[in-house]
């Protein structure tokens, strides 16, 4: 008879809840609020209220001159836990045709790029592959044209690139689509392979009626919640309200 005691029963561990990823899109109107005052600090305070892991910004650079960043780097560094994805386009600019991506310091930038689009007026798309919570995710930030015809062309080009990305990793597209109609052609282009969240009306901030700001995602992500960020500060910081969404990774995320 052996004197060796039987091994203790293995402990039953409860599975950890899936990692939640929060994203946001915000047209900051070059930092000019509904009170016609330019105040970058207000924008950063609104971002602090939202507390998203990843933020796509539109109109993040001044339009003329050196097209300098609306949000001074020292303010971001000293007053937030965000970092701007380095797009390596212009020395003083944060974005590409005003589009920029901010990420929390806990997020690792694996790759970034800018994408030229067919356009009537200067437009572009910014994209980044990010590592968050042990998973890689592709982000596309955009600000589409005022012309319906050009919006469709731009949506088709962006959707094709994002379709390729979603074959490799979870993919989110977000930005100001400049589209008032629910059945518009640009939505048909995006909806072929992506779900379009109805976060709610975000424009005009003082009295929002237009669903211009949108967040879209592939099937590798499960949308848990979404909405428009409404606060006293957000209603005056820009003419758009920020939109946000929370996701968990779907079954295909790690395939």
From TrEMBL:
GO CC list: membrane
Organism taxonomic ancestry: Bacteria, Pseudomonadati, Pseudomonadota, Alphaproteobacteria, Sphingomonadales
Gene Ontology molecular function, alphabetical: endonuclease activity; exonuclease activity
Protein name, UniProt field: Metal-dependent hydrolase, endonuclease/exonuclease/phosphatase family
Record PANTHER family: CALCOFLUOR WHITE HYPERSENSITIVE PROTEIN PRECURSOR (PTHR14859), ENDONUCLEASE_EXONUCLEASE_PHOSPHATASE DOMAIN-CONTAINING PROTEIN (PTHR14859:SF15)
Top-rank taxon: Bacteria
Keywords, ordered alphabetically: Endonuclease, Exonuclease, Hydrolase, Nuclease
Protein's UniProt keywords contain Nuclease: yes
SUPFAM superfamilies listed in its UniProt record: DNase I-like
Keyword Nuclease appears in the UniProt entry: yes
Domain Endonuclease/exonuclease/phosphatase: residue ranges: 24-240
Pfam families per UniProt: Exo_endo_phos
One GO term (biological process): GPI anchor biosynthetic process
């Amino acid at each position: 008879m052996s004197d060796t005691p039987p091994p203790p029963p293995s402990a039953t561990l409860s599975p950890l809840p899936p990692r939640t990823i929060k994203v946001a899109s915000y047209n900051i109107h070059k930092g000019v609020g509904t009170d016609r005052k330019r105040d970058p600090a207000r924008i950063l305070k609104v971002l602090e209220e939202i507390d998203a892991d990843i933020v796509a910004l539109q109109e993040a650079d001044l339009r003329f001159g050196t097209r300098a960043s609306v949000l001074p780097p020292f303010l971001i560094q000293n007053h937030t836990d965000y970092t701007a994805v380095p797009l390596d386009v212009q020395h003083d600019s944060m974005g590409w045709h005003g589009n920029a991506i901010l990420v929390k310091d806990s997020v690792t930038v694996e790759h970034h790029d800018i994408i030229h689009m067919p356009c009537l007026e200067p437009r572009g798309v910014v994209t980044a592959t990010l590592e968050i919570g042990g998973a890689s995710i592709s982000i596309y930030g955009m600000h589409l044209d005022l012309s319906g015809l050009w919006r469709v062309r731009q949506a088709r080009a962006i959707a094709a690139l994002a379709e390729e990305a979603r074959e490799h990793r979870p993919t989110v597209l977000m930005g100001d689509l400049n589209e008032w109609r629910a059945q518009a052609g640009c939505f048909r282009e995006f909806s072929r392979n992506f779900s379009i969240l109805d976060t709610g009306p975000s424009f005009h901030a003082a009295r929002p009626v237009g669903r211009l700001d949108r967040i879209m995602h592939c099937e590798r992500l499960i949308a848990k919640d979404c909405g428009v960020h409404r606060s006293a500060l957000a209603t005056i910081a820009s003419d758009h309200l920020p939109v946000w969404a929370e996701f968990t990774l779907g079954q295909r995320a790690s395939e």
